[in-house]
Amino acid sequence: MSKVKRLSGLLRRSWYGGINVVQSYNWPQNPSPPPSPTTRRRPKRPVLVSDVLKEIFAFIALPNDQQPFGNLDKKTYKTLHSCLLVNRQWCQVAAQFLWRQPFFTRHIPAQITMMELLLNALNPKLQQYLINKGITIRRLKSAPAFDYSYFIKHIDFELFIDMVRNWSAATFRGASAKDASFLVAKVVLGHIFSYSPGIERLRLSCFQGHSETSHYYEILLEPEIHINLLQLKYLELSGQFYREDNILAGLSISCKNVEYLQLGNWCLDSWCRSPESLSEDITALFKGLKNVEHLEIDSDNSFFPIPICVIDAFKHISSSLRHLRFRCIDFSSKTCMPLEGLATCRKLETLEFVDCEQVGKRLLQPLNAESLPNLQRVRIDGCSERDIVFWDWVDLVNGRRRSI
Q1: Residue 78 CB neighbours (<10 A)
Q2: Which pLDDT score, from 0 to 100, does residue 272 have?
Q3: Are 60 and 83 in contact (CB under 8 A)?
């Protein structure tokens, strides 16, 4: 049953003698005396309070595992867009979910429109600052209904920079477009981080062929953004941005409250960083992120080995780590040593290997019931390991604490 059908069924279903979910929130707790016969009664329209609408829309906008970074699928967007036309109350609540993760498309016309909305929603002081710097802000026919920066919760940094650069290329020409894009990105991103009540998710990814965007990551070290990263709960790092000096060191300070950390695409990093330099940055990052409970490491379907410095850094998050997931990692390489660093994570509850190569007893040799007393579940999915001793260990863990 689709979410829309379940929603319509909820609204139609009768409760307690014909009172449905709409009417129940308008049912008087202390009934008023009957009106005078001469009083003209105005018909009441059933209205859902905003808190109930948020619960309904939150159910409609539940994350889809098939959509990256918590993006909404097309059907969900269409459903929420239709809610914008009901009334202003529905429009305001639906807009919060539509603008929760606005940076998800590479369609240039859509990016330009979105950028113009964000620029027109800036406060007059910031708009005048950009105008004084020679940045032209095209005025819309009507003012934005909301300051959409307030609704933003998830930021895909690479797609945000792509949006700013495409808008600058369409507005300016030559070298001035590059200078304008950096300034606009700094102002708009600073406004988002300072005005939004809390950015929950941040994704940083810089891939081969996009080195011209690497300097944009310095914006994250600006004071107005740096201090607001303390509210961040979900951090995803992938690609080649590790080569930028002080980025990981800065994130380790400002993102110290992150609970979910995803690290990916290690194969690209080896082209531009020495193992010693990467080890220093990864160690600094893990030392700062002392509240990480969920850690996911993947190589984006490339089956590349995981750097040994990552395994060694597990000891810095051993007091908080509870769930660990490896995906598309090749453990057959000589650089992949046994998971000795994992043996210090005594609070670990879940260990997953998805589509990995050479997951066997050599890798898990340091792990036992004494080192991981809280381990309740080991999940092996899509791995080709046939070692009997290894599977005996998996069965032992899953049978010792029946939580699956």
Answers
A1: 11
A2: 52
A3: no
* 347 has pLDDT over 80: yes
DSSP annotation of 103 reads -
Map tokens 């797609």 to a residue: 159
- Whether residue 21 is predicted with pLDDT greater than 70 in this model: the reply is no
What pLDDT is stored for residue 240 in this prediction? 58
Residue with tokens 């690609």: 239
Euclidean distance between CA atoms 134 and 90, whole angstroms: 38
What's the pTM value of the predicted model, to 2 decimals? Answer: 0.75
DSSP assignments along 308-373, one per residue: HHHHHGGGGGTTT--EEEEESBBTTSTT----TGGGG-TT--EEEEES-B--SHHHHTT--TTT-T
pLDDT value of position 330: 76
Q: What share of the chain is helix, strand, coil (3-state, %, to 5)?
A: 45, 10, 40
What's the CA gap between 81 and 75, in Å, rounded? 10
